[in-house]
């Protein structure tokens, strides 16, 4: 599966999520993104440094500016189970808008062509670090990192593109 | 009389052969030979991972020459695991040590960084050593894996506990359902040591 790129349509997929009432749900990407402007950003792993200390906080602190520019949803996905994503989300009590979605066994990440084998680091197959902007399911920005770096996949780059 | 003895001898030899061939966990079997080539990953922060070059721990280093109480659970940050299973061992650590236990180990099919975050949250790292069976191979070898895809967890571990003396399984307790917490707690195993 080639990595998703500008002009492609966002595939549909089911992700796990603990909603506002703490109920475990399966939510479809299309139901969240159809007819809307959404940011979908992905990280290799919950509770790992770059993900936790740089990538995620960037989107949390810039959420208001992003929304002011017309973004309806900011979706974070990681190949982790929903319990882990919920616990990780709790470490960001200031978060108002970023939804922490679980791609438990990596099915959606594979559908995006963005899987990354981190087995030797003890993580198994995960996601590359990336950020996408999609307008009514059409990908308009696709910033995908090589390896675990953090150069183009942050909130700043998406803000510039809006 | 002789025929009864012969039948029993045949029966236990067959059972021993069967469990050796299956390589799964049962009382009397050797936990290291049941899972050849398998190693676990000590729970650690990413920086510690980098510093140790993401090294893994072979089973023999964990079990040989030691009295170990080990318990496995479906997942970090989940209900029974967090609220009952880990606390049971954390709160009984002194009693376990008083009975000569060298280490108390918690293992789950999670990556070592998630486990580390969880262990720190539960403030259990002093009492218990946490190890990640990140690809499930340890539990698969011991026939202790269970498909929890319905709960969006994928292939995980049963809830279980064991007392292992120099690699030999002396006691093994497996819950009938992962949501139950009846036989795999510290109180039960304390009586079995």
| Lateral strand order in the biggest sheet of chain A | 5-4-3-8-9
Give the total of beta strands of chain A. 9
Helix-strand topology string of chain B: HHEHEHEHHEHEHEEEEH
Structural class of chain A: alpha/beta
Biggest sheet of chain A: strands, sense, closure? Answer: 5 strands, mixed
Beta content of chain A = 25-35%
Q: Could you tell me the radius of gyration of chain A in angstroms?
A: 14 Å
Note the beta-strand portion of chain B. 15-25%
Low-confidence stretches of chain A: none
Please give the order of strands in the largest beta sheet of chain B: 2-1-5-4-3-8-9
Number of helices of chain A: 6
Helical segment count of chain B: 9
**Average pLDDT reading of chain A:** 93
Instruction: Kindly report the oligomeric state of this protein.
Output: heterodimer
Q: How far apart are the first and last residues' alpha carbons of chain A, in Å?
A: 28 Å
**What is the average of the pLDDT values of chain B?**
88
Shape of chain A: globular
Shape of chain B: globular
* Biggest sheet overview of chain B: 7 strands, mixed
Cα-based radius of gyration of chain B, to the nearest Å = 17 Å
Q: Report how far the terminal alpha carbons of chain B are from each other.
A: 34 Å
How would you describe this protein?
The complex is a heterodimer of chains A (162) and B (193). With 162 residues, chain A is an alpha/beta fold. Helices cover 28% and strands 30% of the residues of chain A. Chain A has six helices and nine strands, in the order E-E-H-E-H-H-E-H-E-H-E-E-E-E-H. In chain A, strand 4 (73-78), helix 4 and strand 5 (98-102) form a beta-alpha-beta unit. The radius of gyration of chain A is 14 Å and the shape is globular. Chain B has nine helices and nine strands. In chain B, the strands form two sheets. Chain B has a seven-stranded mixed sheet. In chain B, strands 6-7 form a two-stranded antiparallel sheet. In chain B, strand 6 and strand 7 (155-157) form a beta hairpin. The longest helix of chain B is centred in the N-terminal third of the chain and has 21 residues, at 2-22. Chain A binds chain B through residues 16, 24, 26, 45-49, 80-84, 86-88, 102, 104-105, 119-124, and chain B through 41, 45-47, 49, 54, 56, 75-78, 110-114, 116-118, 121, 132, 134-135, 149, 151-154. Chain B: Monomer. Chain B: GO terms for molecular function: thioredoxin peroxidase activity. Chain B: Keywords: Antioxidant, Mitochondrion, Oxidoreductase, Peroxidase, Redox-active center, Transit peptide.
């Amino acid at each position: 599966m080639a990595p998703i790129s500008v002009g492609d349509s966002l595939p549909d997929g089911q992700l796990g999520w603990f909603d506002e009432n703490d109920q475990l749900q399966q939510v479809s990407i299309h139901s969240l993104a159809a007819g809307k402007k959404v940011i979908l950003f992905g990280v290799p792993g919950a509770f790992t440094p770059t993900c936790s200390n740089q990538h995620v906080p960037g989107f949390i602190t810039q959420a208001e500016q992003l929304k002011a520019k017309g973004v309806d949803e900011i979706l974070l996905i990681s190949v982790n189970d929903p319990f882990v994503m919920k616990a990780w989300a709790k470490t960001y009590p200031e978060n108002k808008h970023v939804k922490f979605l679980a791609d438990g066994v990596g099915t959606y990440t594979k559908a995006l062509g963005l899987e990354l084998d981190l087995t030797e680091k003890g993580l198994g197959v995960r996601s590359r670090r990336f950020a996408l902007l999609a307008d009514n399911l059409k990908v308009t920005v696709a910033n995908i990192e090589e390896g675990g770096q953090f150069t183009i996949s942050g909130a700043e780059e998406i803000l510039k593109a809006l | 009389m002789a025929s009864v003895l012969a039948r029993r001898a045949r029966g236990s030899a067959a059972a021993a052969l069967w469990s050796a061939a299956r390589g799964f966990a049962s009382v009397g079997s050797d936990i290291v030979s049941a899972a050849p080539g398998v190693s676990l990953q000590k729970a650690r922060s990413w920086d510690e991972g980098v510093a140790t070059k993401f090294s893994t721990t072979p089973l023999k280093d964990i079990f040989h020459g030691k009295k170990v109480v080990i318990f496995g659970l479906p997942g970090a940050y989940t209900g029974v695991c967090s609220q009952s299973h880990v606390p049971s061992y954390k709160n009984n650590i002194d009693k376990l040590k008083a009975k000569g236990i060298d280490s108390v180990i918690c293992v789950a099919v999670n990556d070592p960084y998630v486990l580390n975050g969880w262990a720190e949250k539960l403030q259990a790292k002093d009492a218990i050593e946490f190890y990640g069976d990140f690809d499930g191979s340890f539990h698969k070898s011991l026939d202790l894996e269970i498909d929890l895809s319905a709960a969006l967890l994928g292939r995980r571990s049963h809830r279980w506990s064991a007392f292992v003396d120099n690699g030999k399984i002396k006691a093994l307790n497996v819950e009938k359902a992962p949501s139950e917490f009846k036989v795999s707690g510290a109180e039960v195993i304390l009586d079995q040591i």
